[in-house]
Amino acid sequence: MAAGPTIAALPAGLADGAVVLGIAGFGGAGGNGGNPGNGGAAGIGGLAGGASGTDGANGKVGFTPASGGNGGDGGDGAHGVTAGVSGGAGGAGGNGGSVGNGGAGGAGGDGAAGAAGADGAGGTVTPFTTGGAGGNGAAGQAGGHGGAGGAGGAGGSKSGNGGAGGIGGDGGDGGDGGDGGNGGHGNTGKAGIGNNGGSGGHGGAGGAGGNGGAGGAGGASTNGIVGADANGGNAGNGGAGGVG
Predict the structure, then answer these.
(1) What does R_g of the chain's alpha carbons equal in angstroms?
(2) Which of 59, 32, 29, 33 has its CA nearest to residue 46?
(3) What is the C-alpha to C-alpha distance for residues 190 and 222, in angstroms, rounded to an integer?
(4) Between 36 and 180, whose confidence is greater?
(5) Region labeled Disordered — which residues (predicted)?
């Protein structure tokens, strides 16, 4: 009988020329990259950057077949940068091979903080009348939502463990409400009594988690020609804080 093909690195006990049947191993799939996150880290047997895992080595008759590769980890989601923008979702972990572990899901990105509200305009000054009220401050912008964590990869069909899910990102803080505008100054009245200054504008409501804006100061009154000074306007109320 003619000799069979030579197989490198035969296990002990198999002589050159023996008939050996190969049993294909199952490679683990690599992790998917987060969008817009980074590519997943390489798993065991995987290629760099979360690409699919390579096949496991062929098994030898009478020996345990080679393990499949572990799935790569998912990439983390990007953090929000522009005010009020939500964070990116984490990438999903790759699935394990036949006995490989699933990759961990990527973490979600943090949401960006909201922009502050604009300040209210100052009250107008009109001759012989009460000073105008200051404008209200604008509400602050709500912060961006945190990105969802990526799902963990499934474990191998035989004995692998599933990967852990990614942690969700933190929501951004709401922007502060704008300050109320100052009341306009009261002008001198015809009878010599100064008119009252306008009330200060109310502070804008805080964005989600933001602080309310401060109320504007009341306008000052001018001196009356004969009578006493009139009272300055009342200061506006600060805006209510937003819900966290």
Answers:
(1) 35
(2) 29
(3) 12
(4) 180
(5) 136-195
